[in-house]
Amino acid sequence: MSKHTENELESGVLLVAEPFLTDPNFKRGVILLCDHQENGSFGFILNKPIEMNINDLISSFPSFQSEVYYGGPVQTDTIHYLHTKGDLLPNSIKVLSGVYWGGDFEQLKEFIKMGKIEPKDIRFFVGYSGWSAGQLNMERKILSWMTVNGHIDYVFGENKELWKNVLEEQGGTYGIIAQMPPPILN
């Protein structure tokens, strides 16, 4: 995995919560930034699974054993998905190499029924993380987020210790930060 230099924010970058960020939505969170424009940014928290399956949320969805994640506090009544099948699923948007966002939902259901998309190929999210114009840049200036290059393994791999693992892989100061215990809050 490549190390991230302080490049401009862009699609495919990971936002890694600073160790003392205490907002419960983002504490020790790793967010895949899916879009960053002048008028705002959005992404999905990769390491906050919820105790639900996609079939628990959408009764008309084909039987499919896919865990659902908390994508963020914005529009928690919506469902989004990241997947590896951008070459197959129409209207998918490339986020980074091998990772795509969205696409034709009805076609997605058909491909699942046909077995062309398996649980390892997709991750579902309830809600998303969003920032208004200039907000994310301001949060970086006050050191709420570290930035790291995204990688497909961060999105679809094991995420139990994702925050720690991402930082350790960067080495140096990031590796030291990864060893910090969570803050104790009263």
Automatic annotation (TrEMBL):
InterPro entries: AlgH-like. One of its GO terms (cellular component) is cytosol. This is YqgE/AlgH family protein. Belongs to the UPF0301 (AlgH) family. Pfam families: DUF179. It comes from Aureispira anguillae.
